[in-house]
Design goal:
The radius of gyration is 19 Å and the shape is globular. The chain starts with 19 loop residues before the first helix and ends in a 13-residue tail after the last helix. The N terminus and C terminus are likely disordered. Helices cover about 75% and strands about 0% of the residues. It is mainly α. It has 18 helices and no strands. The longest helix has 28 residues.
Length: about 350
């Protein structure tokens, strides 16, 4: 991603982030410092969102309407970092795509099934956990995978496939876990809307921008500028999501807190489960790390609109979804440092991530 470069001459050739060329050409100063300290920026955004939500609860409804637009812009910049030709070429990586599908739609449901009997009995809490854990991430997983030396390009190429698969399979999984009554509350319409707004439109605009950049200097300059906005956009998305949901906690704080250990356990289990899948499919280190990250990171930002559309009796599910984001971002700090140690490149000593 953009954050993988733009740090001057120090080891630029080693960095494998998706947008390193754009970042190297981008402005220095504040943007470069944000890229270098992006994990701290994300944690600060989460804290700021919690503070805004607590201090100005009346702003919550308005901020909810801003979630999808901010996320759509974030994904547009994400897609902009990889040329369309590279995306199409990555789709031919059969072993990688199969491994990504297996870890997300076979291994993850089995892990969730093992946890499910021990979840809090409240139906809204259980539904929130299922919504978020059964849906693989399609946005900031690319950032964190890139920080750990994972194949960000192939994750980008897999994004539409992963979102389509979860659209089809999530209602089935909910039926298996909770029965037809609650599975019926998740309709295809919101998922189709999310797919169009968050994947199809940003991807089409990114490809149009790439075509413009290839023909006109003004287009290249615009693409370069947009490439420097990744970290601020991610921070804005996290702040908006958290600030919009904190006012909804109310008396549900204790119920929501009970799911935190399950989210931590999920991250711990999926680190080793993802490594096992990578070895079964004989993936190299970058592809293997990407598979680990796609299995561990969840689609909280994209499934949140589904949770927000639930009946009032299930409203706490949205807060349960956002709670997973808070745990996951902190967990990704540990992942970025530990996964390269667990899956080092051949011939290279195991070492921590680049942050």
């Amino acid at each position: 991603m953009v954050s993988e470069a733009g740090r001057g001459a120090r080891g630029t050739a080693e960095r494998k982030g998706v947008g390193k060329v754009v970042a190297e050409q981008g402005p220095r100063g504040l943007v470069e410092r944000m890229e270098h300290h992006q994990v701290a920026v994300y944690l600060g955004a989460l804290a700021a969102g919690a503070l805004v939500g607590w201090a100005a609860p009346g702003a919550g409804p308005g901020l909810e309407h801003a979630i999808n637009p901010v996320l759509a812009v974030l994904l547009y910049v994400t897609f902009l970092q990889v040329p369309a030709v590279d995306l199409l070429r990555s789709l031919r990586a059969g072993r990688f795509l199969t491994a990504a599908l297996v870890v997300n739609f076979v291994v993850v449901p089995l892990v969730v099934a093992g946890m499910f009997p021990f979840l809090p009995a409240d139906q809204a809490v259980r539904l929130g956990v299922l919504l978020v854990l059964l849906a693989p991430c399609v946005d900031y997983v690319i950032v964190f995978s890139g920080l750990a030396g994972g194949s960000s390009q192939r994750l980008l190429a897999a994004t539409p496939l992963l979102l389509l698969a979860q659209m089809i399979l999530l209602p089935l999984f909910l039926f298996l876990f909770m029965g037809s009554g609650l599975a019926d509350v998740v309709e295809a319409g919101p998922f189709l809307e999310a797919f169009v707004i968050l994947i199809v439109v940003p991807l089409a605009l990114a490809w149009l921008t790439q075509g413009w950049a290839g023909r006109r200097p003004a287009g290249q300059k615009f693409a370069d500028v947009m490439g420097t906005t990744m970290v601020p956009l991610m921070a804005a998305t996290l702040l908006t999501v958290v600030a919009s949901q904190v006012p909804k906690l109310g008396d549900s704080l204790s119920d929501v807190a009970k799911v935190v250990p399950f989210y931590v356990l999920f991250l711990a289990v999926m680190a080793f489960a993802g490594l096992a899948v990578a070895r079964v499919f004989r993936l190299d280190a970058p592809d293997g790390r990407a598979v680990v990250f796609t299995g561990a990171t969840r689609n909280s930002l994209v499934v949140l609109p589904l949770a927000l559309a639930l009946p009032d009796s299930l409203a706490v599910a949205a807060v349960v979804v956002v709670t997973q984001t808070l745990v996951e971002v902190i967990g990704m700090v540990a992942y970025v440092r530990t996964i390269p140690r667990l899956l080092p490149a051949p011939g290279a000593p195991a070492r921590a991530g680049r942050r």
